[in-house]
Amino acid sequence: MRILTGPDGPANELTDADLRRVYAAPDGPWFRGNMVSTIDGAAAGESGTSGSINNGVDKRIFDVLRELADAIVVGAGTARIEGYRPADRPTVVVSRSGRVPERLIGAEPGRVLMATCQAAEALDETRAVLGDENVLVLGGHRVDLAALKDRLGERGLPHLLCEGGPHLLRDLLDQGALDELDKTLVPRLVGGLHPRITDGPPVDVPLELRLLVEEDHTLLGRWFVGRNN
Q1: Which domain holds residue 149?
Q2: Does residue 202 sit within a domain?
Q3: Is residue 229 in a domain?
Q4: What is the pLDDT of residues 60-90, one digit of tens each?
Q5: Who contacts 213 (Cβ-Cβ below 8 Å, separation ≥6)?
Q6: Can you tell me the mean pLDDT for 174-183?
Q7: Comparing C-alpha atoms, which of 23, 54, 52 is closest to residue 36?
Q8: What angle (nearest 5°) sits at the alpha carbon of residue 167, between those of residues 176 and 222?
Q9: Half-sphere exposure of residue 51, counting CA atoms within 13 Å on the CB side?
Q10: Of 229 and 29, the one with more pLDDT
């Protein structure tokens, strides 16, 4: 793995320690998203999951970003489709309905948090499953994602990693909550009507390239969100 462009210039043969250094978040609260797509823009492959398009290079960065995160943030739909299970750090599920994905039920208390809104239909049920202190009600009819960033920081979880899906990433950008996008571009073309890494009403957010890494024809970029620089 080599750096093509970055703050320290080009470099070859990056170790995991090197990757932790070049991907380290700035001090203070920091919300990054990590996504993968093919050359023709597909964020999922034949199975409908990102696992059908990613590769070992993407997995290496995925593991580094998880290691650097205090909490993982994921949309409820993505958690179900991708089969999320409790991780070694808190998983924060974002859901307007407030319903906990099946494979995350029964986790150790505090290992799974729900970020939802006052109109959530499953609010009482989820409080019973996770505990009232692990259910964050943010907003009336939609989840206030900027408030989520603040609330998690208050809980000692300042470095957040969003792993999708496309609707949640779009909403983070729209609400000005995202600080960074990490994107893997795998060298494949799949065609079809697959989702992109963002989905929903249009957003127009400038990005600034901070790092570009390559291995085995796979490109991995680190962009800071322009309006937050």
Answers
A1: 27-189
A2: no
A3: no
A4: 999 999 999 999 999 999 999 999 999 999 9
A5: 1, 2, 3, 4, 6, 14, 22, 61, 219, 220, 221
A6: 98
A7: 54
A8: 60
A9: 8
A10: 29
